Amino acid sequence: MRVWVARPLPAGARTAGRVAALGHRPLLAPVLDLALSGAPAPEGPFDALVLTSASAVPALAGSPLAALPAYCVGARTASAAQAAGLGPVHEAGGDALALAELIGRALPRGARLLHAAGRERKDEPGDTLVARGYRLTVWVAYAARPLAVLPEPVAAALDHDALDAALHYSRRSAATALGLARAAGREEAFRRVAHHCLSADVAAPLVTAGILSHVVAARPDEDVLLAGLVPVGPHPVRQDNDAEASPALRPGLERC
């Protein structure tokens, strides 16, 4: 399969390598450009870090904040935090509300938390943590800037219906990919690609656009996502054994 890896660098390069190791042909073409914000970290003291993306980890590595307990939304972020020497590292189940629950079990209300986040971020887990009495400070540690135009290799592949699948790791990345394809006049070809999404939240822009050929991993884990790289037609027929056909699918939810 020819697989478009739309994930930003450097993580996108690692994913492309994994796709190739599975016998597929990756097309590495990120639609977001990640960069550290350069904003200084807020003055503490803080009791713990809140991490909802691995993209925030480089801003913390080697700083005094790295010694704080790091509460991470999922496996990818936790792995990056551990590799950078942060910690101790605590991992939630890949969901922002699960992260809030994890912190609620581990830390007393009133604890001072530093959320190292991107410029564009979701309300959770911040809203829940603040409502429960935690003192949360948000630090914009990085920004994800969308590309101005669809990457040329992707445009060429779409012109020839030469893409079998695309991998999406964030809601914003999926929305940006769709927007760039639409602006480039390739939306119809984009709709014919099987879009494999890390979670239902990531797939939301595709669902809103009525794109039927999308697949959602049964849990937000890259191993599960990549296991789902099997051909999916633009109008797949839902069958009772969908979950057996691909370990990345949950029956009745992911094939639309």
TrEMBL record:
- What is this protein's name? Uroporphyrinogen III synthase
Q: Which organism is it from?
A: Methylobacterium aquaticum
**Positions in coiled-coil regions:** none
GO function terms (MF aspect): uroporphyrinogen-III synthase activity
Start and end residues of each stretch annotated as Disordered: 236-256
> Taxonomically, what lineage is the organism?
Bacteria, Pseudomonadati, Pseudomonadota, Alphaproteobacteria, Hyphomicrobiales
InterPro entries given in the database record: 4pyrrol_syn_uPrphyn_synt_sf, 4pyrrol_synth_uPrphyn_synth
GO annotation terms (biological process): tetrapyrrole biosynthetic process
The Tetrapyrrole biosynthesis uroporphyrinogen III synthase domain sits at 15-226
Q: Which domain of life is it from?
A: Bacteria
Pfam families assigned to the protein according to its UniProt record, in alphabetical order: HEM4
